[in-house]
Specification:
Helix 6 runs antiparallel to helix 7 and helix 8 runs antiparallel to helix 9. The chain has nine helices and 17 strands. It is elongated, with a radius of gyration of 24 Å. The protein folds into two domains: 138 residues, Creatinase/prolidase N-terminal domain (Creatine Amidinohydrolase, Chain A, domain 1, 3-Layer(aba) Sandwich); 244 residues, Creatinase/methionine aminopeptidase superfamily (Creatine Amidinohydrolase), CATH 3.90.230.10. With 389 residues, it is of the alpha+beta class. The N and C termini lie far apart (53 Å). The strands form four sheets. Strands 4-3-2-1-5-6 form a six-stranded mixed sheet, sandwiched between helices. Strands 7, 8, 9, 10 and 17 form a five-stranded mixed sheet that branches. The chain has a four-stranded antiparallel sheet with strand order 11-12-15-16, with helices on one face. Strand 15 and strand 16 form a beta hairpin.
Length: 389
């Protein structure tokens, strides 16, 4: 358990402590942050309080007395609900302001693990419960050097596969062969497997109006042919099949032909420039050592699309945290779906992926941005014009 680091973070946040709670292993964050596996079944509630200074204290049920056995500090036991209430009051001691896996108004659903009743119970003891979102990001979303190297290697392999997929589409279409979204999806998945990459689902291969559905997923039974004159969107995410693998997540768009329509060219240019304005916002803030929140990055991209007259056609956040899961637990670049006030902190990675989705076609351009103590950088290739297939 990273007790010294956790307590230092609590002091930096001005908190009296961090209260962990679980029932039936509903909060995976707690186990990962505390770095422990329960020593018994978890059919009863347990609590573990890490104060900003001093020894941690825990509370577990008598029939599951071994649950917290591997964690430091005294572990008290309860059986009745009255003993639970008094025991919880006892481990909290004089604390007045504590963090829990709670998010006001569920603004950050990734950390909203504690039920409302438990928050009511703690607040009923005169304690101010605040969100642990910044703390969770600190211990969950930061990468180590090996993870960065794994991400960069995954990116090199995926960028090559993406280029190969576009080349395959071009060859098929120019040769007059029938090719579908699903066939290209399966080609990409085959290349992932051959390249030592794994993914949770996808990729997204979408033509024309299908590309206006950001979570479109072709199937063998429900897919479109890719033909001359079509716009094709590829959204690909995968990671190395290794213990410290983290995702690389990109979206590129191409056009089957020599001359895209003026509308396609125009929309791509707006999306590309919105993406680049968000990247520039991050780079400038990191270089100036300015505190930057996720919502501010979203604002930079969204303002450009709004000013171009397409506000209603951009209906998702600008980007998401990236980690061992493609949608990680760090700050999202979001002032649309939520108002994400979490800070962008060093050694984290996130996507920047604005889009414009029209009835006829959709365009999205996605890159990954990694931030360290002194700089921010896009970790792979960057699309600057429509790919002509």
């Amino acid at each position: 358990m990273r007790l010294t680091e956790i307590q230092a973070a609590l002091r930096d946040e001005g908190l009296d402590g961090w209260l962990f709670f679980d029932h039936h292993q509903r909060d995976p964050l707690g186990y990962r942050v505390l770095q422990f596996t329960p020593g018994s079944m978890v059919t009863r509630r347990w609590y573990y309080f890490v104060p900003a200074s001093g020894e941690p204290r825990g509370l577990a049920h008598k029939i599951e007395a071994q649950t917290l056995k591997d964690l430091p500090g005294e572990i008290k036991l309860y059986a009745s609900w009255q003993e639970l209430t008094e025991g919880l009051r006892g481990i909290l001691g004089s604390a007045k302001r504590v963090a829990m896996q709670y998010s006001p108004n569920c603004a950050v659903p990734y950390v909203a693990m504690v039920d409302a009743g438990t928050v009511e119970l703690v607040r009923g003891m005169g304690i101010d419960v605040v969100t642990s979102a910044n703390l969770v990001q600190l211990f969950e979303a930061r990468w180590n050097q090996r993870q960065l190297e794994n991400h960069l290697e995954a990116g090199r392999r995926i960028d090559k596969i993406r280029a190969g997929a576009f080349s395959r589409i071009s060859s098929k279409v120019r040769g007059g062969e029938r090719v579908t979204e699903w066939e290209i999806q399966q080609y990409i998945l085959d290349q992932f497997r051959a390249g030592g990459l794994i993914t949770d689902n996808g990729p997204d291969v979408a033509v024309n109006a299908n590309a206006s559905n950001p979570h479109y997923n072709p199937t063998q039974e429900r897919c479109s042919e890719i033909r001359r004159g079509d716009l094709v969107l590829l959204d690909m995410w995968a990671k190395l099949d290794v213990p410290e693998g983290v995702y690389y997540d990109i979206t590129w768009v191409g056009y089957c032909g020599e001359r895209p329509s003026e509308a396609m060219e125009n929309v791509f240019g707006i999306v590309r420039d919105a993406r680049d304005k968000a990247i520039a916002r991050v780079k400038a803030a990191v270089a100036a050592k300015e505190s930057l929140c996720g919502y501010q990055v979203d604002d930079a991209a969204r303002a450009h699309i709004r000013d171009a007259g397409y506000a209603e056609a951009f209906f998702h956040r600008t980007g998401h945290s990236i980690g061992a899961e493609v949608h990680g637990t760090g700050a999202n670049m979001d002032n649309f779906e939520t108002h994400d006030e979490r800070r962008v902190i060093p050694w984290t990675c996130f996507s920047i992926e604005p889009g414009i989705y029209l009835p006829e076609f959709g365009v999205r351009s996605e890159v990954d941005v990694f931030v360290d103590e002194t700089s921010a950088r896009v970790t792979g290739e960057i699309q600057d014009r429509l790919i002509l297939l």
